[in-house]
Amino acid sequence: MEWKNDSGKYSCGKNLFLGPWKVGGVHYDSCKNRNDPAKYAATCTLPGIKNLLGHFETEEKAIETAENAVKHWLNKLPSNAPAQRTGAEGDRSGAATGSTSS
């Protein structure tokens, strides 16, 4: 996981990348009430996890929450699932037809 500063014109925050894919972020939420101390929004864009993870008082706590959500998602992936064969590659396996070659 790698954090990169958001380079948008009106953005103030960081995006979390897993390889080339953006999987979350932390941004300062300027729309929050000025008396509300929780100004940092943590987000996650992975399937099965809600997008807005919440608002936090510090950027560090928001970052920790976003990273924990991604780690949780990664831990739920099947670790030893067999590779799925597609197309001609799957048709060439002898197990599918019952034939064996010597």
Describe this entry's structure for a reader.
This protein has helices at residues 59-75, 87-91, 94-97; strands at residues 2-5, 13-18, 21-28, 40-44, 52-56. By secondary structure, the protein is α+β, with helices and mostly antiparallel strands. It has one domain (2-78).
Question: Could you name the key traits of this structure?
Answer:
102 residues; alpha+beta; five-stranded antiparallel beta sheet; 3 helices
Strand order of the largest sheet: 1-2-3-4-5
Count of individual helical segments: 3
Biggest sheet statistics: 5 strands, antiparallel
Q: Shape from CA axes?
A: globular
Mean pLDDT: 84
In short, what is this structure?
The protein has helices spanning 59-75, 87-91, 94-97; strands at residues 2-5, 13-18, 21-28, 40-44, 52-56. It is an alpha+beta fold and 102 residues long.
Question: What is the fold's blueprint, element by element?
Answer:
Blueprint: E1 2-5, E2 13-18, E3 21-28, E4 40-44, E5 52-56, H1 59-75, H2 87-91, H3 94-97
Antiparallel strand pairs: 1-2, 2-3, 3-4, 4-5
